[in-house]
Write a structure and sequence with these properties.
DNA polymerase, domain 1; alpha+beta; hpI Integrase, Chain A; three-stranded antiparallel β-sheet
């Protein structure tokens, strides 16, 4: 060694390998990137081992690494094999908890929103995975996974199922990065845990209880008698057939009141796809009322009492309770809309389903249908708004005279 100087390492630009002696070379790519490489023969095979780039490894440090590799060769040991063995030992010390936390941090694009990310972090945290967080990744086996899942499996089946899937994702990622080399995933469902865990109890709450559509105009009349912001939020939710979270977390920048369009971004939609909602004149009127009252001091359309926060997700439910409707849910108004559309109109099935932003179950149909049927959906929502208008019950179009496109 000693053919190169620190100055040469800094100034050399010619692409290729520049020898320093002792099997150590400075490698310069055509793009000008510089790194250290140790070349050697072992078992009659030419091999090379990277020793780092010049930004992190100086000439002196590269020589120390090369001398260490030469000593291993003298003792009949393959330097690359020795390094890999050392890396495997280090990898075996990484705990499930540390890896899971890092996974959540580095996969932000995977999550629909901050709430979704928080759910991942919470279920993979000590409260649910405390029994296995301290275990090394390569020590996670079926019994370790079952120790976490069994206490939850029948008690909170939906959470347990999601947690199992998240653990499976974490362990798949660990294996792909070499931290579980050769090990099968003990959290996989088919062909493994499915044959061990009992069938999960189905949720007993059933469908969201809905108001009969014949009673809706009278309900809207009573709703307009309330001075609460939640009443306006609920009416907009009904008129747009959207979910309560989509309304309560809506931002002013999502609305184009001139064109009467509300564009809900993909990260706020259950299906993860952007959803355009046609706004009827009454829906626009509601938004105008909010603008006049709030003067848009908050990005949220329905701002809560806490600064920078939206109205509580319980606000509309509590409003229903005060109105004496303990027997129905906010989400149930989507069912009310769907029942009305099916039984009182001739709008096609796909138009009604797209108005609810439902995912297309038929893959072939989904592949061929590229548009969002927006103009047809606007006609549907205008008919729905007309039906919802108080004192319009006498004008309900009977089934034999269904609304058409």
């Amino acid at each position: 060694m000693g053919k190169l100087t620190a100055r040469q390492v800094e100034t050399l630009k010619e692409p290729g390998r520049h020898s320093d002696g002792g099997n150590l070379y400075l490698n310069i790519t055509k793009a000008g990137a510089k790194s250290w490489v140790f070349f050697y023969r072992f078992d009659k095979v030419q091999r090379e081992m990277g020793l780092g780039g010049i930004a992190t490894t100086s000439l002196a440090q590269a020589r120390v690494k090369a001398l260490a590799a030469l000593k291993l060769l003298k003792d009949g040991i393959d330097p690359l094999a020795e390094r890999r063995a050392a890396e495997k030992i280090e990898a075996s010390k990484i705990s499930f908890g540390a890896f899971a936390d890092e996974y959540v941090k580095t996969h932000e694009g995977k999550f629909r929103n901050d709430k979704h990310k928080a759910q991942w972090a919470s279920t993979l945290g000590p409260a649910y995975c405390g029994a296995m967080r301290s275990l090394p990744l390569n020590a996670i086996d079926t019994q370790a996974v079952l120790k976490v899942l069994r206490p939850l499996w029948q008690k909170v089946p939906e959470t347990a199922s999601r947690l199992r899937g998240r653990i499976e994702n974490i362990l798949d990622s660990a294996k792909a990065q070499g931290y579980r080399d050769g090990l099968e995933n003990p959290a996989r469902w088919k062909g493994h845990l499915k044959s061990i865990l009992p069938a999960r109890q189905r949720l007993t709450r059933g469908h969201h209880v809905a108001l009969a559509y014949d009673d809706l105009p009278a309900f809207i009349s009573a709703l307009r008698g309330s001075q609460a912001t939640a009443a306006l939020a609920l009416e907009l939710c009904i008129l747009t057939a959207t979910r309560s979270g989509e309304v309560l977390n809506s931002n002013w920048n999502e609305f184009d009141l001139t064109k009467a369009v509300w564009t809900i971004p993909a990260n706020r939609m259950k299906a993860g796809h952007e959803h355009r909602v046609p706004l009827t004149p009454r829906a626009v009127e509601i938004l105008d009322l909010i603008q006049q009252a709030k003067h848009m001091h908050n990005d949220y359309v329905f701002a809560g009492n806490a600064k920078g926060k939206p109205l509580s997700n319980m606000a509309m439910a509590m409003l229903l309770k005060r109105m004496g409707h303990n027997d129905i849910t906010v989400h149930g108004f989507r069912s009310t809309f769907r029942d009305w559309a099916s039984e009182q109109t001739s709008f096609p099935h796909e138009v009604c389903e797209m108005a609810l932003a439902h995912t297309i179950g038929n893959k072939a149909e989904a592949a061929y249908r590229r548009g969002d049927l927006f103009d047809k959906r606007r006609k549907l929502m205008e008919a729905w708004a007309a039906f919802c208008e108080p004192n319009m019950t006498s004008k309900i179009i009977p089934i034999q005279r269904k609304i058409t496109l």
